């Protein structure tokens, strides 16, 4: 329980006390992250005073682990980097691998998969060179996590199985339980629910046998999600209540939010709206407080569902609007982050190439001018590489990474230009928003991979059904915007109806048997509004009216409207 881990008694010497602090902090990580952080910080101070580089590196690594659990990515990165430098200085290969895995985990959570993989692969190489089977198994598991977070669930499973199959890895039961837990998550996401249930129960048993409270909290949350998908709601509720209890006891904030979300959904499905509302509201506020935007979005979606079923459309609309705003912000942030990552890589690559070329030039001048032609070839290759990177950077600023249509950044720029042109020359212009009906049910009934396939197909259909001069852009998770040039109200209504009908009639069975997709579309052709954002707002309101009128239809105009659950 929280606070149950005592501070170590005063040892006879500073060295003994430092060793005790490090051991207590490592043990506390699985039970109370806050106590672990305090103990590790005291160990850092003591190791610094004693000029013990190795002990300070281990203490900073433990501070990084605690910061990661507390969702402090910046603090975790700083601690892991200092730990890595200390381990390198003392030649501690096991420590280097631990710190590299920690850095990889944080980069993965920040959405930088290439950096995450680079650190995990370095950790794996060190573990293989030293023959450390425990460290090899851990590195393989974390590599699997990166693939899985990117939606490559089968590749993730392959790495997890390699981790389990590693000869001698059985000596670390906690690492084995972590890998089983990750396998169970992937099996659930792939729709293999019976396999997921058996695997997660094995993971939970492993965590219980090892007394790993934090691991139990994570496995119980995942077990509850699988049982919920299987409609075994009583069992799901028991698992989620225990997950909430253990997450609270360990100070595992992400686990608390996850369990509260699951309990809210289960209570809603079992006819307890008041209890469901309380759990979901708590999950929403906690997610907002800790910056867990994806969980906050899920809580708003679940509350919108609940209010709609309770006949409270105004509250449903409020939560749905908040959900869509978070979704749009997340997409915009993801696009910006990808651009920043590419920019940094380009700058580093360019600087390295310039330094390499300078050294080559100095060597050549010292020896002779006979290699001038070869240098020119190198410069040409570097320039070609630079040009390719610039082209890729430009594409990333304009294109949605999943669907290939224009992203939010490109939409904002193009819509402003077309609006200004239409107003200046008195030409017609229409903006339409198409929102998939009941899209959340696609992810819930099938998988997120199915949902991604649907979004790609929708994007292709939209591009096919409009003119090549028009613009198709992804606006939110399942929302797309059409910018229809030289298109007045009558033509806009016909164009949107054509798109709606094409999507309704499309054969979706190639993606999943029994799958049917429809869209609700709202459009606005009123260029007398204050600007492109006002036209988007009017189209959005019209789309709400299409949803309220029964979905799978088209609505136009600029009157205010309201939205029910998509």
What does this structure look like?
The chain has 566 residues and is mostly helical. Among the domains are: 13-87, Serine Threonine Protein Phosphatase 5, Tetratricopeptide repeat (Alpha Horseshoe), CATH 1.25.40; 92-149 and 157-163, Tetratricopeptide repeat domain (Serine Threonine Protein Phosphatase 5, Tetratricopeptide repeat); 333-398; 408-556, 2-Layer Sandwich (Alpha-Beta Plaits), CATH 3.30.70.270. The protein has 22 helices and five strands. It has helices at residues 14-28, 33-49, 53-69, 73-90, 93-109, 113-130, 133-149, 153-165, 173-189, 193-210, 213-229, 233-250, 253-269, 273-290, 293-309, 313-367, 372-398, 408-425, 439-445, 448-465, 489-505, 532-548, and strands at residues 429-436, 471-474, 479-485, 519-524, 554-556. The chain has a five-stranded mixed beta sheet, sandwiched between helices. α22 (532-548) links the parallel β4 and β5. The protein starts with 13 loop residues before the first helix and ends in a 10-residue tail after the last strand. Residues 1-5, 7-11, 335-352 and 559-566 have low confidence and may be disordered.
């Amino acid at each position: 329980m929280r606070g149950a881990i005592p501070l170590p008694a005063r040892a006879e010497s500073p060295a003994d006390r430092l060793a005790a602090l490090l051991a207590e902090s490592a043990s506390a990580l699985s039970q109370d992250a806050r106590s672990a952080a305090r103990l590790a910080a005291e160990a850092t101070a003591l190791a610094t005073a004693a000029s013990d580089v190795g002990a300070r590196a281990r203490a900073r690594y433990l501070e990084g682990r605690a910061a990661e659990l507390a969702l402090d990515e910046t603090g975790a990165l700083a601690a892991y980097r200092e730990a890595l430098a200390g381990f390198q200085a003392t030649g501690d290969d096991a420590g280097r691998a631990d710190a590299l895995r920690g850095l990889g985990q944080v980069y993965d959570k920040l959405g930088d998969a290439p950096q995450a993989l680079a650190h995990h692969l370095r950790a794996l190489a060190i573990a293989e060179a030293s023959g450390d089977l425990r460290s090899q198994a851990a590195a393989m598991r974390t590599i699997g996590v990166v693939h899985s977070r990117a939606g490559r669930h089968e590749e993730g499973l392959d790495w997890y199985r390699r981790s389990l199959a590693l000869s001698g890895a059985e000596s670390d039961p906690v690492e084995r339980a972590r890998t089983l837990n990750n396998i169970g998550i992937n099996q659930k996401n792939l729709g293999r629910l019976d396999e997921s249930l058996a695997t997660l129960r094995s993971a939970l048993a492993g965590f219980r046998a090892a007394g790993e409270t934090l691991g139990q909290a994570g496995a119980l949350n995942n077990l509850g999600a699988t049982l919920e998908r299987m409609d075994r709601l009583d069992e799901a509720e028991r698992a989620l209540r225990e997950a909430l209890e253990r997450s609270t006891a360990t100070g595992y904030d992400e686990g608390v939010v996850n369990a509260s979300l699951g309990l809210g959904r289960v209570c809603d499905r079992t006819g307890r709206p008041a209890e469901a509302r309380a759990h979901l509201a708590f999950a929403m506020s906690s997610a907002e407080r800790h910056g867990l935007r994806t969980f906050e979005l899920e809580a708003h979606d679940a509350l919108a569902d609940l209010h709609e079923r309770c006949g409270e459309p105004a509250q449903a609309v409020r939560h749905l609007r908040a959900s869509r705003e978070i979704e749009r912000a997340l997409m915009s942030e993801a696009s910006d982050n990808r651009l920043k990552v590419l920019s940094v890589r380009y700058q580093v690559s360019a600087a390295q190439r310039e330094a390499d070329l300078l050294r080559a030039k100095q060597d050549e001048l010292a020896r002779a001018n006979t290699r001038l032609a070869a240098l020119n070839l190198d410069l040409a290759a570097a320039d070609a590489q630079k040009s390719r990177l610039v082209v890729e950077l430009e594409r990333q600023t304009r294109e949605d990474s999943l669907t290939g249509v224009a992203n939010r950044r490109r939409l904002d720029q193009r819509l402003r230009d077309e609006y200004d042109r239409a107003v200046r020359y008195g030409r017609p212009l229409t903006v339409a928003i198409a929102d998939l009906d009941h899209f959340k049910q696609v992810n819930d009934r099938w998988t997120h991979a199915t949902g991604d396939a649907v979004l790609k197909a929708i994007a292709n259909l939209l591009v096919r059904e409009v003119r090549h001069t028009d613009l198709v852009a992804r606006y939110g998770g399942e929302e797309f915007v059409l910018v229809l040039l030289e298109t007045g109200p009558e033509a806009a209504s016909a164009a949107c109806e054509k798109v709606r009908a094409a999507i309704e009639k499309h054969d979706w069975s190639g993606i999943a048997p029994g799958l049917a997709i429809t869209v609700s579309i709202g459009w606005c052709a009123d260029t007398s509004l204050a600007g492109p954002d006002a036209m988007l707002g009017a189209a959005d309101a019209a789309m709400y009216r299409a949803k309220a009128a029964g979905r799978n239809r088209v609505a136009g105009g600029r009157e205010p409207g309201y939205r029910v659950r998509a």
